Amino acid sequence: MQRRGMTIPLLIGGATTSAKHTAVKIAPEYRQPTVHVADASKSVGVVDRLTHPQRRGELIRENQAEQQRLVESFHRRRQGNLAPYQEALARRFATDWANVRIDTPAFSGRAC
Fold first, then answer.
1. Fewest CB within a 10 Å sphere: which of 17, 38, 44, 107?
2. What gap in Å lies between CA 20 and CA 15, rounded to an integer?
3. Contact 12, 37 (CB under 8 A)
4. Residue 109, pLDDT score
5. Count of CB atoms situated within 10 Å of the CB of 44
6. If DSSP states are collapsed to H, E and C, what string results for the chain?
7. Residue pair 30/2 in contact by the 8 Å Cβ criterion
8. What is the pLDDT of residues 45-83, one digit of tens each?
9. What percent of the chain has pLDDT over 70?
C-alpha cells in the first residue's frame, strides 16, 4: 500500500493477525493509520471515527499510543533472559514413555 502511494487507513484484524503483530510488523511499514480491529462487528465504529473530522484525530492518537505500548511490550519480552540451550536440555521434562499409561479412547469418529 505504501509503495503504491495509497493514503487510506488500513483496518486489519480478526483471525488475520493480532494487535501486537499489527503494531510491531505492519503499522511501521505504512504511513497512514493502521488500526487493528478485533472482529468485523467492531469495524463499523472504527470507520465512523475515521470518517468523522473531529473524532479522527482522537482515534489516531489513541491507536498510536496503544501501538507504541504494544511495541515496547514486544521489545521487553524479547530482552528476557533465556536459559542457555544446554541448561534447558538438562532441565527438560523427563518422561519414561515405555512405562506411561496412555488410555485408549472408547471409540473413534463422530460422537453423533
1. 107
2. 13
3. yes
4. 87
5. 10
6. CCCCCCCCCEEEECCCCCHHHHHHHHHHHCCCCEEEECCHHHHHHHHHHHHCHHHHHHHHHHHHHHHHHHHHHHHHHHCCCCCCHHHHHHCCCCCCCCCCCCCCCCCCCCCC
7. yes
8. 999 999 999 999 999 999 999 999 999 999 988 777 888
9. 100
Q: Residue for cell digits 511499514?
A: 29
Q: Which residue has the cell 482515534?
A: 59
Q: What are phi and psi of 81, to 5 degrees?
A: -85, 115
pLDDT in tens, 9-33: 999 987 778 999 999 999 999 999 9
Closest CA to 66 of 8, 100, 18, 16: 18
Q: Which three cell numbers stand for residue 89?
A: 536440555
